[in-house]
């Protein structure tokens, strides 16, 4: 487990967090290479289904990054995210999935340093948690046999 | 024309689907005119050995209800698939796993502990659990193996059609039977129902703006007669559930619990409802949002009441 490098999916809103990631890059700020960024038009576009799908095909953690409350390009998309993610986490706990594997953070277009800090911190947390018990190759042989 | 040969079987189910088959009332006479029942453990005295002797594909259609929870269910699914030209997953258990599928939040051992030890009405000091083989003076007795995970019929064998409902409504059952009798079959894989839209589409309750400050459980409040139940804070599942039932439950002041499965094109009914439901919480304050969410004591069990085995995650991970 010492060499465990988590796979992390980060859904970044086009208007704030993705631009924040860009700024981190152009500012030459180093951040954890474990994240795979998926650009979405709004954090409100992230159907909780996307999170489940990412986890079920092998992601060890999922980050959802959106504009700060009040800053949404679409007025209130991020408020919808703010309501969905806590309920999703509560439900994931019942599925035996650590709620720390999913995190919602606000990162603006000017916060390149914050983008790096959030991704580094999240990656470290997932590294400490260990690999996810989900994913195609993680089922026990018993379960593979009987679904 | 030769009569249709129909087989009916129940696997892990409650028996409600068997009653639903009979709920087509006088139309059953019409069915008897055109079809012979060749296998039906609930109603007629056929043995499994009789089915084994039938030639492959000699049964025109099998109405299979119940989920796949043990070795016997799985064996019969394979056997009936081999003998039948058309396999129909009849009712929510065969289609999505339904109530038996909720035990996918546990595993075999936890289920056995609960059923054979912990239930208040159980007295089992020797901690006796069912065994697949037991020696008794008369010889060896066998029981089918009980699986950790409940599966749907389609996760076990190839399925041609799905009939939703817990249990399917009379008109839904007849829609499927009529298609078989007339030979006007829909494309393979069709979920046979009168609607591909949500239950709300056929619900007569008045719908205005959905903004929720507090969720209510059924015992906590008497619903207003005409207003949308979801708008009143009840966890009415109609927005994420296929119609075709005629929105019977909401019309009887009972929230929709989601038994007709997802609307057309949705792959995971539970998380679909989670998304819709949480979006209409009327607050922008994280602490207040958390308080409102706390009104839902069992989100996973509520959202996946009928569809856990058929969902993306299929079961909980047990440490």
According to CATH, the homologous superfamily of the largest domain in chain B is NADH:ubiquinone oxidoreductase-like, 20kDa subunit
Main beta sheet of chain A, described?
4 strands, parallel
Main interface by residue count: A-B, 29 and 40 residues
Estimate the strand proportion of chain B: 5-15%
The CATH architecture of the largest domain in chain B can be named as 3-Layer(aba) Sandwich
Q: What is the CATH level 1 assignment of the largest domain in chain B?
A: Alpha Beta
Spatial sequence of strands, sheet with the most strands of chain B: 2-1-3-5-9
Molecular shape of chain B: globular
Q: In terms of structural class, how would the helical and strand content of chain A be classed?
A: alpha/beta
Give me the CATH fold name of the largest domain in chain B: Rossmann fold
Oligomer category: heterodimer
